Amino acid sequence: MSAQAQPAQALAPAPAPAVAHRRHAALRRSARWLAAAYLLALALIAFWPAPVDRGAHGTIASVLTGLHAHGVPGWVNYALVEFTANIALFLPVGLLGVVLLGSARWWMAVLAGFAASSLIELGQLVFLPARFATPLDVLANTIGAALGALLALTLLAAVTARSPASPSPSRLHRR
């Protein structure tokens, strides 16, 4: 049958909710693959027998010394760099968690970050004597998961606001 002979409905674009649903489904599929890759990388970082920053410690300390010589305050130190790195490491937990679980379950992404961080620190304490398990790492990682969830909620709200005819992302993720 030629394109001209097809009914006009077949040529009309899909309704906005159907398009939005397909986009959200594609986003969740991509997020699952990204989450798998991220979790593998996180496991390698978290359970590497030696601290992963051991080789970079001298370089980071030298950069900080140079920054301090140029007026950067002394409170910008190695501990702050490490704390900030732990926050950044767990941003994907919150971000991907909200995408995969839905915006209504944002708190589960933060809880997952806290639980994963607590298990990592416990594992380091029990099985990796060269690693340093600290409650500050759990705090930083949980903050990272919370900031990642906030970022995801903000991005989803902005995308949803641009397409008002689409259903909310939280309704799409419920089963």
UniProtKB/TrEMBL annotation:
<protein>
    <submittedName>
        <fullName>VanZ family protein</fullName>
    </submittedName>
</protein>
<feature type="domain" description="VanZ-like">
    <location>
        <begin position="37"/>
        <end position="154"/>
    </location>
</feature>
<feature type="transmembrane region" description="Helical">
    <location>
        <begin position="109"/>
        <end position="132"/>
    </location>
</feature>
<dbReference type="Pfam" id="PF04892">
    <property type="entry name" value="VanZ"/>
</dbReference>
<keyword id="KW-0472">Membrane</keyword>
<feature type="transmembrane region" description="Helical">
    <location>
        <begin position="138"/>
        <end position="161"/>
    </location>
</feature>
<keyword id="KW-1133">Transmembrane helix</keyword>
<feature type="transmembrane region" description="Helical">
    <location>
        <begin position="31"/>
        <end position="50"/>
    </location>
</feature>
<keyword id="KW-0812">Transmembrane</keyword>
<dbReference type="InterPro" id="IPR006976">
    <property type="entry name" value="VanZ-like"/>
</dbReference>
<feature type="transmembrane region" description="Helical">
    <location>
        <begin position="83"/>
        <end position="102"/>
    </location>
</feature>
